[in-house]
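ok new one. same drill as before - C-alpha cells go in, u give me an amino acid for every spot. 135 of them this time. try not to just spam alanines like last time pls lmao
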C-alpha cells in the first residue's frame, strides 16, 4: 500500500509494520511505534541480589523518555547502592504519566497479585469429586 513515492518498513520482533511515514528513530537505531511513543512506562527500582523491589520511582510517557529516565537514575545512583544490587528498569503500564510513585507502586502491586492469583487458578484447577461413586 504505497502512498506517494516511499514506503517505510519496520521490522520489530516477529512482525512487520508498514506505514506511509517513518516512525521516530531513537539513538539506538531502532524505530519506535506510535504506541511506544505515547504509552506510559513505570520506572522501578529493584535489587537483583535479593529480588526485593523498592517500588515505582517514576511514571513517564514514551519509551525514549523511559530509557533516558533510567539512565538519569543510574547516573545519579551511588556506587554502594549499585554494588549492593540495586538496578532500575522500566515496564509498560496503564498508569498515566506523572502518577505519584507511591500510588503507582500500590497499583502495580495489586495488579501483580491479581495476575499471579489468576495464573495460579489456571494451573491448579479445582478437582471435583465425581457424583458417581462406583468409579
Amino acid at each position: 500500500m504505497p502512498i506517494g513515492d516511499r514506503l517505510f518498513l519496520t521490522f520489530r520482533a516477529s512482525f512487520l509494520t508498514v506505514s506511509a511515514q517513518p516512525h521516530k528513530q531513537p539513538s539506538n537505531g531502532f524505530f519506535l511505534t506510535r504506541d511506544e511513543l505515547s504509552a506510559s512506562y513505570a520506572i522501578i527500582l529493584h535489587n537483583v541480589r535479593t529480588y526485593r523491589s523498592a517500588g515505582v520511582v517514576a511514571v513517564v510517557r514514551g519509551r525514549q523518555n523511559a530509557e533516558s529516565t533510567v539512565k538519569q537514575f543510574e547516573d545519579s545512583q551511588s556506587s554502594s547502592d549499585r554494588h549492593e544490587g540495586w538496578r532500575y528498569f522500566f515496564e509498560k503500564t496503564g498508569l498515566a504519566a506523572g502518577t505519584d510513585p507511591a500510588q503507582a507502586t500500590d497499583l502495580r502491586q495489586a495488579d501483580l497479585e491479581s495476575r499471579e492469583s489468576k495464573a495460579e487458578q489456571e494451573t491448579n484447577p479445582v478437582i471435583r469429586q465425581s457424583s458417581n461413586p462406583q468409579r
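The first strand starts at residue 8 and ends at 12. and btw The chain has two domains: 1-33, 39-121.
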